[in-house]
Design a protein that fits this description.
By secondary structure, the protein is mostly beta strands. The protein is built from two helices and 22 strands. The N terminus is likely disordered. It starts with a helix and ends with a strand. It has a single domain, classed as YVTN repeat-like/Quinoprotein amine dehydrogenase (Methylamine Dehydrogenase, Chain H). It is globular.
């Protein structure tokens, strides 16, 4: 069969266009691929007792002591809204202050500038205490509808509110310094809960999950996650009433990290790159 020169040119053009279309399509598909959040591996290094009546809302170290704040949940008659120091041998809390459970559901706590700050759930009220005597010094209001977790970057008070927002508050007048939207490859990360600031990054529990996420405070993007499902499963086996994980405490002096959960029978010391 004879093929004219013009026909050859037309075939060449058609093939080239087809290849370009295919390359363009492949490139588009490639661009749509999402990069999954890196998983941070951890090691379990020790375990301690935890009070199974403690409905954990806040967890942190201050001056070498582990503090825990708890909330009162009407479904669990033994729970209370309080905070205090934890005895790692028994898991019991030495109460430093307690709220009227008929009025307030205790939430996260944080120490900053010789004061302790405590959030409540839906009253838009926070409490201020002397960090040494735990005498109540006053109250403050916050802009969010709900108070959940607290931490600090040593300058501002950082609080979560059950959404994907972390709000930075000025500790002098409690005005909003800035807000940080927490996102990952799938978009907004909702129900950000208990917070801890560790070596320049924000770590947070995600409510109703057994994940801790690592957040870049410059962007709000999640740059790592820790799956603690196996510890949650163990807690459930040891105490069937155990609920979801909530509690991250970092002891900067020993560079150790402790985690627990609502009504868990144990506090776990874990290690991971941070």
């Amino acid at each position: 069969m004879k093929i004219s020169f013009v026909t050859v040119i037309l075939i060449f053009i058609l093939v080239s266009c087809s290849n370009n279309d295919s390359s363009s399509e492949n490139g588009s598909k490639s661009d749509e691929k999402k990069v999954s959040t890196p998983v941070i591996n951890y090691a379990l290094t020790a375990s301690f007792s935890h009070d199974t009546t403690s409905y954990t809302e806040g967890f942190l170290f201050h001056n070498g002591q582990l503090f825990e704040s708890t909330g009162y949940d009407g479904a669990f008659a033994s729970t209370r809204s309080l905070f205090g120091t934890v005895d790692l041998k028994t898991g019991k809390i030495e109460v430093k202050a307690e709220l009227d459970k008929k009025k307030f559901f205790g939430e996260g706590i944080v120490f900053l500038n010789d004061k302790l700050y405590q959030l409540t759930y839906r009253t838009k009220i926070g409490f201020i205490y002397d960090a040494k005597t735990f005498k109540k010094l006053g109250e403050f209001s916050f802009p969010s509808d709900e108070g959940w977790g607290m931490t600090t970057d040593s300058v501002s008070l950082l609080m979560s509110d059950g959404k994907n927002t972390i709000t930075y508050l000025n500790p002098l007048d409690f005005k909003t310094v800035k807000t940080l939207s927490v996102t990952d490859e799938n978009g907004s990360v909702m129900e950000v809960n208990e917070l801890e600031y560790i070596k320049g990054f924000i770590y947070a529990n995600v409510y109703l999950t057994n994940y801790i996420i690592k957040i870049d405070p410059a962007t709000g993007h999640v740059i790592g996650k820790i799956n603690l499902q196996s510890l949650a499963d163990e807690a459930k086996i040891r105490y069937p009433g155990a609920m979801q994980m909530n509690g991250i405490a970092y002891d900067a002096a020993s560079d150790k990290i402790y985690i627990t959960g609502k009504l868990w029978p144990n506090i776990y010391e874990i290690s991971f790159p941070h």
